Amino acid sequence: MSRLSVSIPGLELKNPIMPASGCFGFGDEYAKYYDLSKLGAIMVKATTADMRYGNPTPRVAETPSGMLNAIGLQNPGLETVMANQLPSLEKYDVPIIANVAGSTVDDYKRVCERIGDAPNVKAIELNISCPNVKDGGIAFGTSAEVAAELTAAAKSVANVPVYIKLSPNVTSIVPIAKAVEEAGADGITMINTLVGMRIDLKTRKSVLANGTGGLSGPGIKPVAIRMIHEVSHAVDIPIIGMGGVSTVDDVIEMYLAGASAVAVGTMNFTDPYICPKLIDELPSKMDELGIESIEQLIREVKGARQ
User: Fold this and answer.
1) Whole-prediction pTM value?
2) Binding residues for FMN
3) b/e per residue, 249-272, with b = 16+ CB within 10 A?
């Protein structure tokens, strides 16, 4: 193993950096800039049982240190993803984490049962926290009981490890994290976006056609760090941390909060090379901080809690 490699359920990562779901599509656009095999993994865009057109436009708005989006899980649907998008990624030496969303428990089960059949899909990220859809999404992620029920349902049919993507839009995230762990989750990914809104001064209406959207980008990093720190002290399953990562210092900070791998979201829009840059810069930052390996850092952070 190299000093950057990480082993977590279903995933042997050559390095801990991956693009977050929703900010990388299915990789086609970014493959024009660099070899996707350089990435630790790819969290592809959410897949639902049937095709979704998403929300009306405008669906994106800039904010200081971030952005609002209300895409609404637009995607071509399970069968098209299985036939086209996932096979197109097989030429890259990189594991795929398939983000799965739905409106009902049966929707989730239908996708979870099938999507792991793709040879490059090594894990599922169960999206129970999207704030931009009327049915499902965040409704599943704000109740510990419902989140646990959905986790158990996904685990009953999935043939790859299941990670649960938690919502920050709750009073306390720890009971939900503990509930999904007890229901059999193999890991947690966090955080999804924070619900936000902007209002146009001239029209006096919301900038987004959906009314509200999910806030992401560097502005939410302190919230993500706090929540990852809380959850890492409450559960034993690994956490893939995300939320405002834009520098190699942010990557290390995610680890010190308790993450086992790190996903990069909004910064992919600002700098399409951000993921390979972070991978290249990580060894020298580790040298500077006296970190021998990522696995050693994970053990040290866990040991400091005991």
Assistant:
1) 0.95
2) 21, 45-46, 99, 127, 165, 191, 217, 243-244, 265-266
3) ebbbbbbebbbbbbbbbbbbeeeb
Q: Which residues pair with 125 in a beta bridge?
A: 99, 163
CA distance 16 to 113: 27
| Domain of residue 143, residue span | 6-54+72-195+215-304
| C-beta of residue 185 within 8 angstroms of C-beta of residue 237 | yes
Query: How do residues 255-285 score in pLDDT, each as one tens digit?
Result: 999 999 999 999 999 999 999 999 999 999 9
Task: Give the domain CATH number at 99.
Answer: 3.20.20.70
Residues of the binding site: 21, 45-46, 69-73, 99, 127, 165, 191-193, 217, 243-244, 265-266
For the stretch 38-73, pLDDT in tens is 999 999 999 999 999 999 999 999 999 999 999 999
Give the active site residues: 130
Q: What residues does 6 pair with on adjacent strands?
A: 13
Return binding residues for substrate: 45, 69-73, 127, 192-193
CA 147 to CA 176: how far, in whole Å? 7
